[in-house]
Amino acid sequence: MFLSKKTVYMIKLHNTLTDRREELKTIVSSEVRIYCCGPTVYDHAHIGNLSAYLFTDLLKRYLRYRGFEVKDVMNLTDVDDKTINASRDQGTSLEEYTQFYTDVFLRDLAKLNMMRPGVLCKATDHITEMIELVQLLLDKGYAYQSSDGSVYFSISALESYGALSGVELDDLRTNAGCRLNTDEYEKEEAADFVLWKARSPEDGEVYWPAPFGEGRPGWHIECSAMSMKYLGDAFDIHAGGCDLVFPHHENEIAQSRAATGELLANYWFHNGHLTVDGRKMSKSAGNFYTLRDIEQELDDLSAFRYLILSHHYRSGVNFTWSSLQAAVNSLQRLRNFIGRLEEAVKTGSDNNGLTTEVDEGLVRARQQFQQAMDDDLDTPSALASLWELVREMNTLIDEGRFNATDAEATLKLLAEQDRVWGCLFYQDEKRGLSKEQKEEIEDLIRQRAQMRHEKRWQEADQLRERLEEKGVMIKDRGSETVWQIGGKSFVYSQQQDLDS
Asked: Which of the two ends of the chain, N or C, has the fewest CB atoms closer than 10 A to its terminal CB?
């Protein structure tokens, strides 16, 4: 049963749990509590991962735009087979290894102007909560301990298993005896799933004491324990990629429902797959990309954000380099329009307030934007209304029927909508990059260029890391360094300094 209260807003979202669009009814009026499955911090996030987080960022931004207070949580999986194996191969501790990739991930979020979650929770910081949840499931008869000491959830003990994904319990029962000793998602089969993995030699020193034996948590129990700690036994929206529906999210529901009797989340928000040139992205196919690859081609990462958000979140995204270039061109046209408005504010005449045509156009644009976004975040339609506004206003400017007040009002509307899009304006301008800040960055760029000229590569790399921590992206082109902060690019030429 859904824990819904009085309807406050007419926003509709597709709910994977019911497979239909539903009016958003939050448990607490005017507040939305959201949990998003974060990354396993063992490597760089690929662009498919980042597209999922961009759509969740869009959801949170729009809910705030519509007046909701958003309480959002994202987990970081820093203990599983992948992280343990990778840290062992690198000869570093699990904590040191995962912290490095946690920092990389957070920089990626910042580069794409994603809002940092209110709560970022690491699995290894919440082992106590996981142990307590596993013990509760054992006590209630939904879990059992195997001969090797691991604890498994019995899907046969929960008749409602399969409510999210639609899998049939009878089909899964035929495989119930297959208990894998891995918690890697792509290798997990439809069977009883692990809650607690008994200590093994392969795990080295990565284990914790528990009433049911030394070991470490399985993947699925992590999200249930952490989401319930920060958001309660039942919250509003659980977000993630469609690849997580089964078994991960199905197993989260099973654990949580068995423990508390609640569905965990009332709405399940899943984005579609990202493909590359129409094919599944994979390293073996040579079409596996991270944000670092995008940075090699773009001075402005806002274009990647624009590209992803120009698709409906449920339809999936087919990434191609030509579509990325088209996004670059589209975003530049929008920024050229913004520049034209800014010029009109400075030089345009003011003819006693808003002209009628502009006033009507802005009212229409606001209504169309909200109508589209209220309808399951229909970003293609919302962008279409934005481009119609650009066409209308450009026509009025060309015909001389546009004044400074008109320009100010249009810029205000664009700034309002950019609270959702997060890419229309240059980010450094919104953040107010001061003259002193720019001079400091330019000085570091100059020092780094000199180090590279003298082949002091390690020192140059250290300076690059300092710059990246400030949000500065760098691309070297011969004697020139192109540096970008937010959406605006600058060029430093070392040759000019040497010549002078």
From this structure: C
Domain residue ranges in the chain: 12-271, 296-425, 433-499
Cα separation, 161 vs 164, whole angstroms: 8
Whether 54 has a pLDDT exceeding 70, the answer reads yes
CA neighbor of 331 nearest in space, from 306, 308, 365, 310: 306
Report how far Cα 76 is from the mean position of its chain's Cα atoms: 12
Which residues touch 270 (CB under 8 Å, ≥6 apart)? 16, 239, 240, 241, 242, 244, 245, 314
User: Which amino acid, 449?
Assistant: A
Q: Which of 164, 162, 203, 197 is nearest to 183 (CA)?
A: 197
- E strands, 243-373, are 265-271, 274-276, 279-280, 317-319
The residue among 315, 410, 308, 373 whose CA lies nearest residue 68 is 373
CA 141/CA 271 separation, integer angstroms: 34
Of 463, 91, 38, 419, the C-alpha closest to 226 is 38
Residues contacting residue 468 through CB under 8 Å, at least 6 positions apart: 107, 474
Our CA angle for 104, 313, 122, nearest 5°, is: 35
Is it true that 12-271 and 296-425 share their CATH fold? no
291-308 pLDDT, tens digit per residue, is 999 999 887 899 999 999
pLDDT at position 185 over 50: no
Q: For the domain made up of 12-271, give the CATH fold.
A: Rossmann fold (3.40.50)
CA 219 to CA 255: how far, in whole Å?
A: 12
Greater pLDDT, 164 or 474? 164
Say which DSSP state 174 is in.
Answer: T
Is pLDDT at 197 greater than 70 in this prediction? yes
What pLDDT does residue 381 have?
A: 98
d(CA 193, CA 492): 55
- In this prediction, residue 485 carries a pLDDT of 63
Cα separation, 73 vs 212, in Å, equals 29
pLDDT at residue 235 is higher than 80:
yes
Q: List, for residues 101-115, the tens digit of each pLDDT value.
A: 999 999 999 999 999
380 token code pair: 């293609």
Max CA pair span of the chain: 84
- Contact criterion met (CB below 8 Å) for 460 and 450: no
Q: Which two tokens stand for residue 70?
A: 């958003």
* Predicted TM-score of the model (pTM): 0.83
Domain 296-425 is of which CATH architecture? Orthogonal Bundle (1.10)
Measured between alpha carbons, how far is 387 from 395 in angstroms, rounded to an integer? 12
What is the β-pairing status of strands 20-23 and 12-15? antiparallel
